[in-house]
Amino acid sequence: METTRDLLITLARRYAFADLGVLAPAAEIAGACEFGQRLLSLDAEDFAAEAKAVPTDLRRQARACHMPQTPREQPRGALESLRPAYGLLLEVIAVRWHRRELSPMIAAVHIASEYLPLLAFEPQLGHAGDPGRWPDGLSSTGSRFGVIGDRECDHTKSEQSATNRTLRVATEPGQGWRAYFDRQHSQVAGAFAVCVAACRNPCTAMDWVEPEQRADLQLRARTALAFAESPLVRLRHAAPVGHGFGVPSPEEVLDAWERSRAALDKNAVGSAATKDDGFPLPGLPALFSAVAAAPIEPATLLSGVSEHIAGLLERQ
């Protein structure tokens, strides 16, 4: 017969951090559950929040995915590199899939699609899109980047507004910085991809990219744009996190992903999505790795928190 402790351990190993946090028999366990729930909910603002009940190595991994809340906050977390954050996104997607929580799973996929262009640009930028470290070339003579109202620029009005803001947001106070990341940074990511891979009237904004690197970057950025328009990402608009009230079934998700894989299989980068690697959405880690030009695997952060909480419960 299962004891109450056995049931709580089962909840921990099923990543039911929110439920377990309410039932936790000790403050230390409740604190660890809160930490795990922040990660599962992708609350990147609070990944660096103090969590004394969690081992140092897990806190360090979470801080690598944290979004700085001021222009000068150190370390820079996800603005230094998006690769740890994409590892966490993959782990969250897998956990949500196995828990059949498909609406938040599709929301995580959508977040991944929004910032994927910056993952593509990371090798060239040397960081993950930190507004305080943009290359001077973005504002070089002849550049339309961030110029509002320029009709020769292929950016939308909202992208022009976002790119204009990103060039000066590092000098703003924390409130303005946070508002920018809440509303505009993902548009800057898409604008970068348009500049290098889809602009019909190229200006000098991307001349800072070395010519020998340009073709490879164009291909990876173009694939990022294609992923954002894929049937899988478009499912978001049929879920409560989008604009409707339907929740996609597992079969609908897998069908949308198969159609997405076929649509992406047009070049060497997009064809990575066709790899069968055992992930719930087969080939998604390989696709992110190809766009990043670096290996990206699902993180073990959530599983580490789960096992840590289970260990705490076993010692109760």
What does this structure look like?
There is one protein chain. The chain has 14 helices and no strands. It is mostly helical. It has two domains: 4-124 and 224-314, no CATH class; 136-207, no CATH class. Helix 5 runs antiparallel to helix 13 (284-292), helix 6 (102-125) crosses helix 9 and helix 9 packs across helix 10. The chain is globular, with a radius of gyration of 21 Å. It starts with a helix and ends with a helix.
Q: Note the quaternary state here.
A: single chain
- Over all CA atoms, what is the radius of gyration? 21 Å
Main sheet, how many strands, which sense, barrel?
none
Structural class: mainly alpha
Range of helix content:
40-55%
Number of domains: 2
Continuous helix count: 14
Tell me the number of strands. Answer: 0
Coarse morphology: globular
| Poorly predicted tracts of residues | none
Structural descriptors:
14 helices; 316 residues; 55% helix; 0% strand; mainly alpha; 2 domains
Structure in a nutshell:
This protein is mostly helical. It contains 14 helices and no strands.
Task: Provide the fold topology.
Blueprint: H1 4-13, H2 17-23, H3 27-40, H4 56-64, H5 83-98, H6 102-125, H7 157-166, H8 174-183, H9 185-197, H10 211-228, H11 231-234, H12 250-264, H13 284-292, H14 301-314
